Amino acid sequence: MAAHLSTLWYVDSPRPVLALRNYPDPHTESAASLARTLFGEDVTHVGTAPLADVAAGSEGVLHIGVFPGVTVVCLPLPDGMLPSQLPQQWRRRDGQGRTLLVMSSEDGARGSFAEWHGKDLHRAFCADAAHIFEDHGLPQPWEQPFWGGEFPMKYPLNVLPDPQMLPFHPQHFAESANREWLGFRYTAVGPEDDINPAKLLVHTFRAGAPEVTAAPADVQDLATVGGGKRPPRRRPSLMRWFGFRSKRDRIALQS
């Protein structure tokens, strides 16, 4: 079973595996600073969680781990997004280091990955089991066994595969990109792997200042005048902060 992934990595270390293999504590203030920058407002620290548990991202929050030379952001990017469509504000702006995108969707068994060197897209791939949606740049040496048929898809004996089926599972392919770049996979973690993502902690933040847990009695009375409690503040979809428009926004623009 493949993991559901939606992660961005900003890598300055020449050997990110060495930076992560001892499971360093994620830097709280640096993560909070990045969260404020990405959200564009104050943030509230919710807690910490293992990377393996939040790698798919969560609506309304950012999961951020800042380690020496390596930073990860877990966010719910749209499943149908092509890697090259990653909004500009989520790529490196200083022309330095690498930006790595690894996505694996539960819907449609789609796998995607991309690598930017500074501002330049070096490699991008996106496919489901039978269709390649994006294939930019030259295949890397680690990809050869996949294209060579060493990791074929497996089917029941009574199922005839579609002739267009890829010679590998795209989600396995995406996780292998993660392993090549960062030293680990999310599924089938074994003792020979350098890193176990279940042991790597990241911080969780939501947009907005901490909410007051209880208001004074006179304020509570004012809030209930009119026969009901004040409705809770509705937070906009996290996708709006990421530069994506929701279906409702697209309809409004067309009207």
Please give a structural write-up:
By secondary structure, the chain is an alpha+beta fold. The protein has one domain. The chain has helices at 16-20, 28-39, 51-54, 144-147, 170-182, 217-223, 238-241, 247-254; strands at residues 5-11, 43-50, 61-67, 70-74, 98-105, 110-117, 120-127, 132-136, 201-207. A 9-stranded antiparallel beta sheet has the order 2-9-3-4-1-5-6-7-8, with helices on both faces. The longest helix has 13 residues, at 170-182. It is globular, with a radius of gyration of 21 Å. It starts with a strand and ends with a helix. 31% of the residues are buried.
Entry summary:
This protein is α+β, with helices and mostly antiparallel strands. 22% of the residues lie in helices and 25% in strands. The longest helix has 13 residues, at 170-182.
Give average pLDDT, whole number: 82
Number of domains: 1
Distance N terminus to C terminus?
A: 43 Å
Uncertain segments? 218-255
Radius of gyration: 21 Å
* Share in β-strands: 15-25%
* Total count of strands: 9
Strand arrangement in the largest pleated sheet: 2-9-3-4-1-5-6-7-8
Summed up, the helix count is 8
Shape: globular
Q: Main sheet, how many strands, which sense, barrel?
A: 9 strands, antiparallel
What is the H/E order? EHHEHEEEEEEHHEHHH
**Structural class category:** alpha+beta
Which percent range fits the helix content? 10-25%
